[in-house]
Amino acid sequence: MLKTLADNVFSFDVEWIPDPKAGEILHGVSQADQPGEKARASFESLWSHARKSGEPADSQPYLKTILCRIVSLAGILRERTPGGGASLKLVSLPTDPKDPEKITEKVILNSFMKSVGRRKPQLVGYNSAQADVPIIMQRAIVNGLPGLGFSERPAKPWEGVDYFDSRNSEYNLDLADAMGQFRDRPSLHQAATLSGIPGKIEVSGDSVAEMWLAGKLDEIVAYNEFDAFTTHLLWARVAHFSGLLNSQEYQREQELIGELLRVEIDQGKIHLEKFIAEWDRLLAITAQV
Prior knowledge:
Layout: E1 8-18, H1 20-27, H2 37-50, E2 68-80, E3 86-93, H3 105-119, E4 122-125, H4 128-142, E5 172-174, H5 175-179, H6 188-193, H7 208-213, H8 217-241, H9 247-266, H10 272-285
Helix pairs in contact: 1-2, 8-9, 9-10
């Protein structure tokens, strides 16, 4: 299980869509940078080339991450405070889903890599070693961006932070690997809800492409924030099992998440009320209240 609790922990999740530019370059479809039917045609060109024989003509097969565009990245930043406590902060990119300049993939990637390169937090995700970290790296390369500290690697695993060696460095911590292997690996929704933690609420990852095509980026960001809170609560539970948080510290971590949710709601993120309601419901069902 987990062995390390860093001073800074970032429990995060990334949302992406088929990249319309990939459809244009690889399959010759019309240019389409905005949601709409042209973008749908580009999506379809990528899906059709990824479908296996016998799959339904309207299926949306998993695409290689390099063929996708990051549209949202959200996480809970945990920073150790003097005296051994912790403070939590919600980080959500784009910071304004309605600002055309802030929603670009380059801005999202630059903001993430600059912050990670400066703070060097322990990255925590679910299936992040196989998906989230690789797509960040691949799409930064596609966009011609420097790694900004995120890409730095030590000569040996024990000599520093390494986000590209999840086997030997706990700075790229994939909770999916901690929870199980192969057929016994649960989904994030399963692991979370059975533990009394909200999982998928109304939306799933399969819905993100359609939401983007309909111009609902703000709803994608909201969904992404749900997953960030879910991931952090599951991390805290696994850290408690691993002995990195004692029972009192684990209880305090949940209280900090509750406080953060209420602060964000007071600042206008009303959608997070659904998270609190689902959390209360699951705690009651699992007899943890």
